[in-house]
Amino acid sequence: MNLILFHPDEISRPLPRQDPRAQHLLTVLRRRVGDTFDAGQTNGPRGKGTLLHLAPDHLQIRFDWEPAPPPPLDPLTLAIGLPRPQTARKILQEAAALGVQALHFVRTEKGEASYADSTLWHSGEWRRHLEHGTAQAFCTRLPALTHGNTLAGLLDTLPAPVHGIALDNYEAPGPLSKCHVIRDTRLFVFGPERGWSEGERELLRGRGLVFAHLGTRVLRLETAVVAAVAIFKAQRGAM
Amino acid sequence: MNLILFHPDEISRPLPRQDPRAQHLLTVLRRRVGDTFDAGQTNGPRGKGTLLHLAPDHLQIRFDWEPAPPPPLDPLTLAIGLPRPQTARKILQEAAALGVQALHFVRTEKGEASYADSTLWHSGEWRRHLEHGTAQAFCTRLPALTHGNTLAGLLDTLPAPVHGIALDNYEAPGPLSKCHVIRDTRLFVFGPERGWSEGERELLRGRGLVFAHLGTRVLRLETAVVAAVAIFKAQRGAM
What we know:
Two copies of one chain form a homodimer.
Chain A: E1 4-6, E2 15-16, H1 20-28, E3 36-41, E4 46-54, E5 58-65, E6 74-81, H2 85-98, E7 100-107, H3 119-122, H4 125-136, E8 144-150, H5 151-157, E9 164-167, E10 187-190, H6 198-206, E11 210-212, H7 221-235
Parallel strand pairs in A: 1-3, 6-7, 6-10, 7-8, 9-10, 9-11
Antiparallel strand pairs in A: 2-5, 3-4, 4-5
């Protein structure tokens, strides 16, 4: 954790000593009374926290916030066929660290239906991974997230025309970097492990998405996500 | 594993039943006598294996190899300040999957010296991670690897002039994608967790390496490696 994130309504309250952030401050960062650390308000400013008082059951912290919030996230949305939870955890952290604006994990026809029922999604654990990636990047802005929508349902929520690219190793005419729409794209769509159904491919084409691949080597989904986002950011001179 | 790798001297011998590949074939891929699977010879051809006979202590396999070997690896070498072993494991797999030609894990002045003594390096465990990434990518070609050399020692082994880029968030004038030498580069150098020493930066500059960064967000080393390799491959139209 390169900074410690707090929700806005936690700022004025003492931090319970059993909170993982208190443990991190005291045992990993080894902060003592009077010491400072890098802090952030979720979707708000960055700043410094100062440890004012160490009570048996809580910590008192003073915050001094920078006037300007961190820079905005990249204008890129990812839609991803629901992967196995262990893969989703990695993607949540990586995509948040890279700074994408929104993440949508969608149900797909050939995807494993049980993945949508994971405690990752229903316990709210996903939020912890987004926060972890965001704090890693020294940022406070969390990507927006949905899970469990269908691909068609998600596409209906996006403003038309959709400037998007579907990453698909089977049907794509060329690599992502050569894709003529990459400069205008605002959406990358990644299929599930077993690929898209023919109906879903039709749907993507019908909504104007263009197909592209990431080369001839078979990559794990989390590697493909980082690679595609890096290529997007590089096209914009941001990486 | 998208294919199962065998060393050339294993091809003509039965596969012991307790070998992890035998277990994978029988219990994950659920192959029975007469079934085939995707196989590869380390640094050699790909092909099909056919399970001929299942003895109590070994498997007999027939191999049918494709005439042409898989395409060459990308002409990119990575030199990386020795990271904590858990990070190195991820990088070994990711870089092998992405298809870089060589990986050198170097000792650095500010790096944690004990990382070089990890069993990862001394038990040969590193090779398993390279094989895992290579098999993931449906390839047989393993990157070359060294570990424990110093940065200066490594640079001495590379043919001059070194067309390389040092990824450095502190001293770089601009992002990797805008770096004027990216099309000619054959080497990316990544610093250790605590960064380069001033002497190492001088050394890199003296050998003609150019500095570039990967944006303002602080990325984990394994994320930075995937991002930089993706940008390299995209510049060559390979991704």
